[in-house]
Amino acid sequence: MRILLYSLIFSLSVFGNLLIIVVLTVNKRMRTVTNTFLLSLAVSDLMMAVFCMPFTLIPSILKDFIFGAAMCKIVAYLMGISVSISTFSLVAIAIERYSAICNPLKSRVWQTRSHAYRVIAATWVLAFIIMIPYPVISHLESYQRPDNTTAHQCRHKWPRAKAEQTWYILLLLVLFVIPGAVMIVAYGLISRELYRGIQFEMGQKKDSTGVKNGLTSTVSSGSDDGDGCYVHMVPRPNSMEMSTLATSSGAPKAERPRTNTSEAKLEAKKRVIRMLVVIVVLFFLCWMPLYCANTWRAFDDISAMHALSGAPISFIHLLSYTSACVNPIIYCFMNTRFRKALLATFSCCAAPCRRRRLGLRDNEEDVMATGASMSKFSYTTVSTMGTC
């Protein structure tokens, strides 16, 4: 069962992240701010799949680390780096989305690809620096099996127990508690802003009879594709006269399309909120067992080894590695624009004209929760509800 599950997650992770890397690299129109962070996330998840999963499963099954002392240090170092970069990328994406949705005008000033490159470079350098202790403390140890044969295991040898406890508490805070809190706050504020939009839409639907009589009016953008991420403009009193004239002259023709568009936007916003909840839940579901197990082993190694050795710790590691498989699905493959770019990339050789038909529009709006960069959008309305 372990071999089957590890092989399945490994294949999906490698295949999915390689597709993301190819699509985002080949298609110039996909090189947005958020997609730049997604590219870094895909590279780190690919590293996690390649350097973590085989070197966790094989020694667990064979009860022997067969890769040598050098690989013991290298694998431990790359494991920590890949996990750190993946977590930092998720936090960067959450902050970028918060700024783009809740402060769209201010975010345009600094949300550029050059800024994204600097942030990504900083996260990689930080990950390489933070994980320096791993190659230092990782050692290949020999032990006798019950059948009197010699086996090896890659273990962490700390100079003092306090140092080990401090290290795992630090990892718990830097790679789990703080990133989880940032994601909860960022996506919570985004959800609140989208919920305000839902409430606004519901209020507009209830006041539709007032719109017909010229009592209220709204300004709607004709370029919205119902992605649930647009920004409303609450009408001002001095604009009521022009809006009344517009509704009196063209309301009968536009009433049904506007109603359909409004309902589509409401459903899109609800989907976005559900998607944000799924992102946060999956982050905690994938990583909480591993960090809890590591902290437990740091403070009570004997009882932790007795309870978690063998299959339990293997499945805990597998659960954390599942994030490398889930991230491509959540952030990219559920994105309509990414799917179009994927089809265009792999159908260009067989059908060049098909790629032109599936070419991406420069102003196409995507679902925010699946990786579209809001800083690339053309906002035609400004929110007067305030910032998050």
General description of the model:
Helix content is 72%, strand content 4%. By secondary structure, the protein is mainly α. A hairpin with a 5-residue loop joins strand 1 (138-144) and strand 2 (150-156). The longest helix is centred in the last third of the chain and has 60 residues, at 240-299. The two termini are 46 Å apart. Residues 215-256 and 353-388 have low confidence and may be disordered.
Low-confidence stretches: 215-256, 353-388
Number of helices: 13
Q: CATH superfamily assignment?
A: Rhodopsin 7-helix transmembrane proteins
Strand content is under 5%
Indicate the CATH architecture.
Up-down Bundle
Kindly report the spatial arrangement of strands forming the biggest sheet: 1-2
For this structure, the quaternary state is single chain
Secondary structure tally: strands = 2
Shape: elongated
Structural class: mainly alpha
CATH class category label: Mainly Alpha
Order of helices and strands: HHHHHHEEHHHHHHH
The value of Rg in angstroms is 25 Å
Percent of residues in helical segments?
over 70%
Integer average pLDDT: 76
Number of domains: 1
Termini separation comes to 46 Å
Largest sheet: 2 strands, antiparallel
Family: Belongs to the G-protein coupled receptor 1 family.
Membrane topology: Multi-pass membrane protein
Domain G-protein coupled receptors family 1 profile: 16-331
Biased composition (Basic and acidic residues): 253-262
